[in-house]
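pasting input
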Amino acid sequence: MAVGDVTMPHMHVVQGVKIGSAEAYVRYPNRRDLVVFEFAKGTNVAGVFTQNAFCAAPVHVSKAHLAQANPRYLVINTGNANAGTGKLGMQNAQLTCVKLAELAQVEAFEVLPFSTGVIGEQLPLQRLEQGLKPALDSLTDDAWLDAATGIMTTDTTPKGASEQFELDGITYSMTGISKGAGMIRPNMATMLSFVATDAPISKQLVEQLLKVTVEQSFNRITVDGDTSTNDSCIFAATGLAGGDEIREIGDARYPVVLEVLARIMKRLAQLIVRDGEGATKFITVTVEGGQDTQECCDIAYSIAHSPLVKTAIFASDPNWGRILAAIGKAGVKDLDVEKIQVWLDDVQICKDGGAAADYTEEAGARVMTQPELTILVDLGRGTAKDTVYTCDLSYDYVKINADYRS
Amino acid sequence: MAVGDVTMPHMHVVQGVKIGSAEAYVRYPNRRDLVVFEFAKGTNVAGVFTQNAFCAAPVHVSKAHLAQANPRYLVINTGNANAGTGKLGMQNAQLTCVKLAELAQVEAFEVLPFSTGVIGEQLPLQRLEQGLKPALDSLTDDAWLDAATGIMTTDTTPKGASEQFELDGITYSMTGISKGAGMIRPNMATMLSFVATDAPISKQLVEQLLKVTVEQSFNRITVDGDTSTNDSCIFAATGLAGGDEIREIGDARYPVVLEVLARIMKRLAQLIVRDGEGATKFITVTVEGGQDTQECCDIAYSIAHSPLVKTAIFASDPNWGRILAAIGKAGVKDLDVEKIQVWLDDVQICKDGGAAADYTEEAGARVMTQPELTILVDLGRGTAKDTVYTCDLSYDYVKINADYRS
């Protein structure tokens, strides 16, 4: 079960974005496992993708196509990741685009393919192709929930975020979905996330907005430290709600868009952690007082990846020695442990490198039993700060991943 | 339960090494949780220690003492790591040495302290001191098994290795013990390991032998990727079995000693993995065909640390896509995935970056059900090679670490 409030919000329609889906039986029957996005002509689209060297065939194809033109269509299947599938996998990803392009009467390079699911098996291309027409036939502007549901794998809940905002008297919508629960430690993007707005934003700024916001959202979450082969995040601006195109950072509307997008991306990223495989706790790890952001990030990830910290939190055991050990093993140079302070929410557990004098196990345990908690570390040697989001490590993580293919 | 054969061998007496133990009730009653080693005068001793920035008080003290002189005594307690304990922890580690030195009539700097157990609690110094005399009174040359048992924490079995070897007609013994099951991803040494020989070896060569052999043994194992605050490994050569001191690498006896020590260290390191918390499988990860050893090591650890690979092996599921993903996320530059071959023992699962044509799930599953298996990766771009040892990730790992302090 996901941790905290993960309910889908009202998913505002984004003018210029239509979504269709179909049952293609990629892996399991009776589910709408094929999703198609259609963007209106003139939509500016940006994408970031996994840095895993074994990145999947659809990632290769999507990157190549995105470099040629703004895409008009996204085609997403769940159940099969089309990764580790060699040349045939590349062909299948390309053929999916060709087939959809024929039906939709666009160029194949105007289609981006996405896949998520089991690695190392070939796509059932014929079944997938048969689903393309029904998916296109079902295109509608109000199917974000269907899309969020359609792309789920081990997710227990669909994930969405949506807001409206006003610029110069015009109301715009921004809506996005994400999926992912395991193999989550994105490096550039999460497994799959799609966000769109009907605000008018230049291609260059769409790319910049995506890069900036991904860095503090999807690039700051971890479930198990395993970077997926298929991570992709797409941001599209259709411009169809009207207004002049935002082309410059100096445009007064830019910071508003940035703020909304940052909030939506953070929510979508956190939803993945809240639904992390076997998660029973949502944990925010903030490291401040560092010399630079990188060392704060390294230590935050060292804590967030430590199986010992994660199992202690699962057990609601304030075994804070494990947090210290995780700080110490992060490989940060010349760390003066006697300057380090550690808090669990408002309870200081470690003062100047040792146990805080007024710390009690009861106070620590009170925080540890909460479904949501923050581990705050102050390195006492600077002003840099960074935050990472993670979940605990439970029996169910092992169960889910030991059973996933059976 | 530990994986494979972990039985204690006959532990050969090492002339010049005596071991005593006592019940000091550091944490749990009714166990000999305090162990003392005595080395004969003239014994050359070397040590390597954790690189965790939060290294424990006894590690600080041991390093300082070892820099001053060859130690005559080691004093080891289990149940409490004396880590994250600030200035009082340092005092307690030093006082332990002072007290033992008084009783044994040596200098305090001739005593090295070691602690293992829970982090962040102060040593029960009084109880510990009370155990020192009975421990010294019980010194005997035939108590290696007692020592191996005395230093256990979450270990399910004592760990030892012992060999005899002949140099120039003289028979020498080399015997060692280790402990550790969780918080295991040593970086310079494991949690605790003590090895001694009665061969005559110069101080400089004792240090060199330790460094060289640790690199391919304790520095190549991982249970959970968590580097302990207390990792220490000690190698002592008493010289009491006779013969001229070995001072040069060119000495014909040096490679013989190196070979025996390498074998003993490897065995002691592997025993820790075999007894890894919750382990049901012993896994050798070998990466070859690399440009240099570092990239082979990085990829081997990336596989060995992947919770997804480890849970798949626990489930005996040949979900080899997870192995590819772990290779890809290791951060090795310019990896050509189309040159990568992967085997599970003799079964080739991945050929040229995709599924091997003749691979069958049945063949993969056959290997995965074995209690011991090798993952072999060929990067196809050089001649370098490295090997890491690990275990699977099971329900019991979570159980042990969620329950450890209760």
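fyi Residues 254-274 of chain B form the longest helix (21 residues).
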